[in-house]
Amino acid sequence: MTTPFDPATLRYNEAGLIPAIAQDATDGTVLMLAWMNAEAVAATLATGRVTYWSRSRGELWRKGDTSGHIQRLVEMRLDCDRDALLVLVEQTGPACHTGRRSCFYTAVHAGTEVEIIAPPAGETA
């Protein structure tokens, strides 16, 4: 069953932001976590290019405009409380500003040891 989506039903935090997890729509890799405000959600849905809110710059940030590492929207999903988004994307190039495919490249083992599990693109482990 489908019904019209009302963006006003999303639950933003006190700063007017909602966390958005970007996941590769093809293989399920979790790529990154960023934040969206209502304007970023609207821009993403209207254009098909994933747009976030940059907390450090205080402005909209369309993924890939400066790096060329574009995220094209495949599907946006809402969690049960509507206070988090899952953005399924078609990712061009690395998603992480470190040059890695995913921002989740550091593993903690047994709660005490940290391991870098993915090198930047073009490097070998």
TrEMBL record:
Segments forming domain Phosphoribosyl-AMP cyclohydrolase: 32-105
EC assignment: 3.5.4.19
Annotated catalysed reactions: 1-(5-phospho-beta-D-ribosyl)-5'-AMP + H2O = 1-(5-phospho-beta-D-ribosyl)-5-[(5-phospho-beta-D-ribosylamino)methylideneamino]imidazole-4-carboxamide
Cofactor binding note from Swiss-Prot or TrEMBL: Binds 1 Mg(2+) ion per subunit.
Record carries keyword Cell membrane: no
Chain positions recorded as Mg(2+) binding sites: D79, D81, D83
UniProtKB keywords: Amino-acid biosynthesis, Cytoplasm, Histidine biosynthesis, Hydrolase, Magnesium, Metal-binding, Zinc
Compartments, as annotated in UniProt: Cytoplasm
Pathway it works in: Amino-acid biosynthesis; L-histidine biosynthesis; L-histidine from 5-phospho-alpha-D-ribose 1-diphosphate: step 3/9
Superkingdom in the source lineage: Bacteria
Cofactors, names only: Mg(2+); Zn(2+)
Record-listed Zn(2+) binding positions: C80, C96, C103
Pfam families tied to this protein: PRA-CH
Subunit structure and binding partners: Homodimer.
Annotated PANTHER family: HISTIDINE BIOSYNTHESIS BIFUNCTIONAL PROTEIN, HISTIDINE BIOSYNTHESIS BIFUNCTIONAL PROTEIN HIS7
HAMAP family for this protein: HisI
Primary role: Catalyzes the hydrolysis of the adenine ring of phosphoribosyl-AMP.
Similarity remark: Belongs to the PRA-CH family.
Name of the protein this chain belongs to: Phosphoribosyl-AMP cyclohydrolase
Record gene name: hisI
